[in-house]
Amino acid sequence: MRIAVSGTHRSGKSTLIEELSDLLPSYVTVDEPYHQLEEEGYAFATPPSVEDFEAQLARSIANLEDDARDVLFDRCPVDFIGYLLAHEDCDAFDVDAWLPRVRRALQKLDLIVLVGIERPDRIALSASEDEELRLAVDEKLKELLLDNPYALDVEVLEVEGALRARAKQVLEHLPDASR
């Protein structure tokens, strides 16, 4: 199966990917586009600009073009649409121009695992974290993936609880042959 783990920053995505990688040793893990681009020398603005998120969106789409099976993706194109729609300069982002490419890319996924912010929040944040953006992106992702206003046509599993509980929810959702 091809599984993407989606969520706002500091929601537990990468930790869940690590846990799933241990539990599914035949799966390959694809790092999130931010880290891929950073390793290649891409210089992100602080805070990231619309162009920075569009670069990550393009990389996320490209990551899905490979047909390899049994892959865990840290993020998917919907993550970056969420960030772009929550960005202070969101008017500079044309979601309609990206949707055909995003829909085609998402067809290559079998499942998106949504890791949302829980109440109470399980993740401790530093004083420098942008809590307002984090909450706005979480809300956008839930809208995009659960309400599906753009007809993205992908299966979504929203997980909650402690790390082991989240991993168990994902494993229980997989066909036996995928484990």
TrEMBL record:
<feature type="domain" description="NadR/Ttd14 AAA">
    <location>
        <begin position="2"/>
        <end position="150"/>
    </location>
</feature>
<protein>
    <submittedName>
        <fullName>AAA family ATPase</fullName>
    </submittedName>
</protein>
<dbReference type="InterPro" id="IPR027417">
    <property type="entry name" value="P-loop_NTPase"/>
</dbReference>
<dbReference type="InterPro" id="IPR038727">
    <property type="entry name" value="NadR/Ttd14_AAA_dom"/>
</dbReference>
<dbReference type="Pfam" id="PF13521">
    <property type="entry name" value="AAA_28"/>
</dbReference>
